[in-house]
Amino acid sequence: MNALDIITAGPLTSVQDFGRFGAQRYGLTPSGAMDRLSLAAANALVGRPLSAPAIEIGPTKTVFVARGGPLCVALTGALRFARIGGDACPLYRTFTLRDGDTLTLDAARKGVFSYLAVAGDLTGEATFGSFSVNARAGLGSPYPRPLRSSDRLAFENVTSLPDRSMIPPVFGEGYIRVVPGPQHDEFGKSAEIFCNSLWRISPTSDRMGYRLEGPVLTHAGNFNIVSDGTVDGSIQVAGGQPIVLMKDRGTTGGYPKIATIISADLGRFAQTRPRHTLRFVAIDVAAAQQEARAFHALLQSLPDRIRNSA
């Protein structure tokens, strides 16, 4: 059977797809890829459904070895050097791993997450409709945890493809766009401070939440509210500092939420490296919905952006 052996992997490397849906009312978080656009691009390049499971690779050095036979793969997302032995492997282009080939991904130079997709069916069993790993909940397949040395990912129905490439798709630039959160009105002047300030991503951030470092925000209720629902991109404020809830968030929270990152910008936000800075800009819900439709259209157009390499 064709397989990838994991030789070296960091704590943020795991199997992810678009996530699991329809069960948040039971406390089941969606999880899924931190950057859906990059995942979809990798899958499109190897002829897989856009939402299919692939390997989400964190910013540290990662090494794989191919076993059993050729695997057509594609790498997208964070900018990093990749090589098979001494031969460079460009991003957003398919390449073939043969039995015994070592694929080495150096630490990311820009961005956080990369995606390695394979032209074949990952062997495993979906849990609640998804392969996505949520280590805190013990969910995911074929391992319900981040990947580590000695793990093996097996693939069935492997196909070969001609060399294919894609210009890296981009959606949005500049400020990260947000809509007002459910407790926005209770932040008073702090709501203006939030959008007029420079924020830094804390090194303590992870797939559950990105902590923001910046000015202290105040809330009329002293940050105590009755727990209510959260969504991907909810920005809750605990003790004066914002936390952006990410893919492995809880489904409810007891801290006030000042804003929500629009779904179309969440992947771009997720690729912001620790200690890097960013700003937010508020838009209305109608504009956010328009951006969501445009983002969906971009996803659906990815197969048409592929070109066979000469």
Radius of gyration: 20 Å
Number of domains: 2
Structural class based on helices, strands and sheet pairing: alpha+beta
**Helical run tally:** 4
Strand percentage, roughly? 25-35%
User: What average pLDDT do the residues reach?
Assistant: 95
H and E order:
EEHEEEEEEEEEEEEHEEEEEEEHEEHE
Terminal residue distance: 30 Å
Instruction: Estimate the global geometry from the Cα principal axes.
Output: elongated
Largest sheet: 8 strands, mixed
Query: What percent of residues adopt helix (DSSP H or I)?
Result: 10-25%
Strand order within the widest beta sheet: 22-15-16-19-18-21-14-23
Task: Please state the oligomeric state of the protein chains shown.
Answer: single chain
What's the β-strand tally? 24
Protein described:
Pfam families: CT_A_B. The protein has 310 residues and is of the alpha+beta class. It has helices at 36-45, 189-195, 263-270, 285-301, and strands at 2-8, 14-16, 54-57, 62-67, 71-79, 82-84, 87-88, 94-97, 102-105, 110-118, 121-122, 152-156, 164-165, 176-180, 199-201, 209-213, 228-229, 234-238, 241-245, 252-253, 257-261, 277-278, 280-282, 307-308. It has 2 domains: 2-166, no CATH class; 176-299, Cyclophilin-like (Cyclophilin, Beta Barrel). It contains 4 helices and 24 strands. It has an 8-stranded mixed beta sheet. Strands 7-6-9-4-1-12-11 form a 7-stranded antiparallel beta sheet, with no helix packed on it. Strand 15 (199-201) and strand 16 form a beta hairpin. It is elongated, with a radius of gyration of 20 Å. The two termini are 30 Å apart. The model has no long low-confidence stretch (mean pLDDT 95).
